[in-house]
Amino acid sequence: MSFVNSSLPRTAAHPPQFSPREFRDALGMFATGVAIVTARSENGQPLGMTINSFNSVSLEPPLVLWSLAQRSSLLQALTLTRHCAIHVLTAAQRPLAERFATRGIDRWAGVEHQLGLQGVPVIAGAAAVFECHVRSQYAEGDHTIFVGEVLRCGHRQGLSPLLYHGGMFYTEHALGRLSPKATGPMDR
């Protein structure tokens, strides 16, 4: 059974008791993976930027989401696209993460990639790639949330992920699997 109440008002219950900086710093304590989203503009130019807001939504149908700040220079182009690819980066791809987060440069210069579904650029070497049809977009607060239906995905085992925590990059050190009694995040 699912319940969605779309008639709830879109107002805050109370004014925040913290500054925007305090909120951002607190959010930074949640470690995330680092990814690059790629697409093609209406005129066929490759687009791409580093994100850390990638998340799974549903297994059936296979859905993922990612979000982009309203102030992003790529927002307009990405809201017009119907297909994208999300690349989960490895620790060795930190230079790519930094490149695709830098403004005012040719982000694609020298980047090894091939064309995937619908001509979307797929960057070589990622830990995982999700090629998606953009099903919906939601403007919320100062971001737009994109929901994509995964049309094709693939992954490579044994690679250290690139992680982001507290404004810094990290790599993982395996601590072992969940205990047999614990359920994984995907099973909840």
TrEMBL record:
InterPro entries, sorted: Flavin_Rdtase-like_dom, NADH-dep_flavin_reductase, Split_barrel_FMN-bd
Domain Flavin reductase like: residue ranges: 27-171
Pfam families named among the record's database cross-references: Flavin_Reduct
EC number from the UniProt entry: 1.-.-.-
Matches recorded under SMART domains: Flavin_Reduct (SM00903)
Keywords associated with the record: Oxidoreductase
This protein's record includes keyword Oxidoreductase: yes
One term of GO molecular function: oxidoreductase activity
Top-level taxon in the UniProt lineage: Bacteria
Keyword Oxidoreductase tagged: yes
Family membership: Belongs to the non-flavoprotein flavin reductase family.
Stored PANTHER family: FLAVIN REDUCTASE (PTHR30466), FLAVIN-DEPENDENT MONOOXYGENASE, REDUCTASE SUBUNIT HSAB (PTHR30466:SF11)
Name of the protein in its database record: Flavin reductase family protein
